[in-house]
Design brief:
This protein has 450 residues and is of the alpha/beta class. Helices cover 34% and strands 21% of the residues. The longest helix has 22 residues. The protein is elongated, with a radius of gyration of 23 Å.
Length: 450
């Protein structure tokens, strides 16, 4: 996919910002000027223009990135073509690294071999990272794209345990009684399925009591029927991707381990299938968390937050420097921000400021408030808290407020990312698994937790 061999047969790919198009065009020979004008190319995204030699052979490819660094054209080209290429980015707003990542994204196709196209990268260390980056993201995308009859809590765990990507990490294994004790809310969600709930709990290094590791958490609901409060058919169609938060967490853990050589990191993924049977949890049921907090089930389709609550309570035992969780948690976040822009919440203004600096020139997530007055929507007369509000208002906020209740102490630094983990074709021009929120959070960790 990436090579440091720039052969004479390599084809030039020029990435052109719409903002710099006139400057670029003024420097081109008459043939290219006329070709662009004839094809009405002005650097728009995701427009792709192939420029031939006079004899018809391909001379150059120009790809527009619009006015806001949209690299979907790069991904689209990588997905449809084969050959050897090198990038010319003088008239782009995007960095070479972002262009290379978009190329990697486009090379992926579920259950297919990658295309035989190679992009020249000068630095060998960069090639090593880009190949690892590609392998990591492809692994996570395969998990999301796989059907639920192949990915269940047990097979998910085995895929992680048996992958070479995880061969050097320390796993915490649980017997069924130990799992039920340590993940009681996850057990409540998953007990209705023939595939029993499970958990991935591992670290990149031995964790000592004095350590304050990073904790990365992912929601691992391998399929979500909604439970007794069953989802409508259209809403259930792609619920194989309800473990998308865990897939993003997996990529973040692997990339953070690669980039933060001395940082101790823990990954926690509770796994369950939210099925319907005589053993399924029901509205009005009450379950206790590990710490003894009683949760009344007001809606069985608000199950993902129960998994995260278990993971957060476990994470707090480490006295972590940060808890960062990913979840395909609420439709409310998608209504507010659409499919490509994940919502995030944090209880730490310093963390928020650092994330917003990364958002300044390239918005990749959007902060929503932990508006305390809405906590009364989760009031229960018979337990400490309800798992969901039923008034249809502020669903993403009340979900985050529910999760915050399981932090101990309450000021433990925490970021919660409510993401879609799926694209209908807008995320870098691809359909299927998407990892919204991953890139900005790996940049955030790299900048602040070396």
């Amino acid at each position: 996919m990436f090579t440091n061999d720039n052969t004479e047969c390599s084809t030039k790919i020029s990435i052109i910002s719409q903002n710099k198009y006139d400057d670029w065009l003024s420097k081109q020979p008459s043939f290219i000027k006329n070709w662009c004008i004839s094809n009405n190319f002005k650097g728009e995204n995701p427009k792709i223009l192939k420029i031939p030699y006079p004899d018809g052979r391909l001379k150059e490819v120009v790809i527009g990135e619009g006015t806001d660094k949209d690299l979907s054209g790069v991904s689209q080209y990588a997905s449809l073509n084969e050959g050897n290429y090198y990038i010319f980015s003088k008239f782009a707003l995007s960095s070479d690294f972002d262009i290379q990542k978009a190329w990697s994204w486009g090379n992926y196709k579920f259950q297919s071999l990658p295309k035989k196209n190679f992009l020249y990268v000068k630095n060998k260390d960069d090639i090593e990272f880009l190949n690892f980056y590609s392998e990591t993201l492809n692994f996570s995308r395969n998990l999301i794209n796989s059907p639920a009859n192949e990915i269940n809590p047990i097979s998910f765990y085995k895929k992680i345990k048996n992958s070479n990507l995880f061969s050097n990490f320390k796993f915490n294994n649980y017997t069924p009684p130990e799992f039920k004790l340590n993940f009681p809310l996850t057990y409540a969600v998953g007990k209705s399925s023939n595939s029993q709930p499970h958990a991935i709990h591992l670290s990149n290094k031995k964790i000592l009591k004095k350590d304050k590791p990073l904790i990365i958490i992912g929601k691992g609901v391998t399929f979500d029927t909604g439970g007794v409060n069953i989802k409508p058919g259209n809403s259930m169609r792609n619920m194989k991707k309800d473990m998308g938060g865990s897939a993003i967490a997996i990529s973040l853990f692997l990339l953070a381990n690669y980039l933060l050589k001395k940082t101790k990191i823990v990954l926690i993924i509770p796994l369950a299938e939210n099925s319907i049977s005589s053993k399924a949890m029901r509205p009005g049921d009450i379950y206790s968390s590990y710490s003894g907090k009683k949760v009344e089930i007001s809606h069985t389709d608000a199950e993902g937050r129960l998994l995260l609550a278990d993971a957060i309570e476990l994470a707090c035992k480490y006295n972590p420097k940060l808890i960062l969780d990913f979840a395909t948690l609420t439709g409310a976040a998608r209504v507010a921000l659409g499919e490509d822009l994940p919502a995030y919440f944090t209880n730490d203004e310093g963390i928020a400021n650092k994330i917003e600096k990364l958002n300044k020139n390239d918005t990749r997530c959007w902060r929503l408030p932990l508006y305390k007055s809405y906590k009364n929507k989760l009031h229960s007369d018979v337990a400490n808290i309800c798992n969901a509000s039923l008034d249809g208002m502020a669903g993403a906020i009340t979900a985050a407020l529910f999760l915050e209740e399981f932090l101990k102490p309450l000021n433990t630094p925490w970021v919660h990312v409510d993401t879609f983990a799926w694209s209908n074709g807008s995320f870098l021009s691809t359909k299927g698994a998407a990892l919204q929120g991953l890139d900005i959070m790996i940049e955030f960790l790299k900048n602040n937790y070396q």
